[in-house]
């Protein structure tokens, strides 16, 4: 056999094995045996396929992979029939890295200088803050500063903000304890923690709706960052936890306050004192998560939330957020009345009422 023939045979074998691996991975995904992230990690760690089949397909372009499979089906038989999930992705324009979404999402950051640990991407009235320090996305002092910087740039200026991870392994594994211990606790460290608290509180009181797209591990500060968002959409393989107790410390970014408001005092105490994580479905059951979706649908679902919320009147959004969660009913009703008066007197209210009566879509301006 000539060298050229041998090389061609080897190339054909590699392509055949690669395409068959992707088909089988898609079938496991379609049958609900495992989530996309778990399949990907399993193939990387168990079979030594690096990158995994989904990431490899996303890199090549799912439209290109579909063409290869259609050709393979003709040449090699029905075992290479393109999976339904692949056809669906291509039909939806989710072609992989080149479009920002395939089996996994990919950042398409704005042009110009970017921050070290957080990438900013804007799509009209929607912004995406990509946590970008793989694989753990720890909330290091630099990451906290970068998040604050992103919020200072877009908070109140865009209608909705999605916080997502740029990698499949982790949303955020929590505060970077090693880096924080290098800071003086009574000055530098305390100032940074206070700045983080102001940033998170600012998100809660802003006219910008915020959505955390939690794709995987959200522990400690990562869980607290997600809780500071207005809504949390979780992938099926996501997990949430406050493990600080295992280090002999307590949550420092609002975990003792926001968690009871979301899941109730008893469950919050269990999570904060026990330190054990809960999965996405348990998080949804107790009220920590608003929606659970398949891994490969997470980012599109979070964007759908952002698009829907971006159409709401900014003044009304801000007032609802600012007036909610008051512990005393009378105090809450009084502050609600103040917020109602401000919103009702706005130009957006006039526009909304006029659009409703005229049976048309409102065009809110935030005035």
Structural class: alpha/beta
The top level CATH class name of the largest domain: Alpha Beta
Extended strand count: 10
Percentage of helical residues?
40-55%
CATH architecture of the largest domain: Alpha-Beta Complex
Q: What's the CATH topology name of the largest domain?
A: 2-enoyl-CoA Hydratase, Chain A, domain 1
Strand order within the widest beta sheet: 1-2-3-5-7-10
CATH evolutionary superfamily of the largest domain: 2-enoyl-CoA Hydratase, Chain A, domain 1
Question: For the CA atoms, what is the radius of gyration?
Answer: 23 Å
State mean pLDDT (0 to 100 scale): 89
Q: End-to-end distance, in Å?
A: 77 Å
Q: How many domains is the backbone divided into?
A: 3
Largest sheet: 6 strands, mixed
Low-pLDDT stretches: none
Percent of residues in β-strands: 5-15%
Can you put this structure into words, describing what you see?
- The N and C termini lie far apart (77 Å).
- The chain has three domains: 88 residues, N-(1-d-carboxylethyl)-l-norvaline Dehydrogenase, domain 2 (Orthogonal Bundle); 193 residues, Alpha-Beta Complex (2-enoyl-CoA Hydratase, Chain A, domain 1); 44 residues.
- The chain has 16 helices and ten strands.
- It is globular, with a radius of gyration of 23 Å.
- The protein has 367 residues and is α/β, with parallel strands linked by helices.
- Helix 6 runs parallel beside helix 8, helix 9 crosses helix 10 and helix 10 crosses helix 11.
- The strands form two sheets. Strands 1-2-3-5-7-10 form a six-stranded mixed β-sheet, with helices on both faces. A four-stranded mixed β-sheet has the order 4-6-8-9.
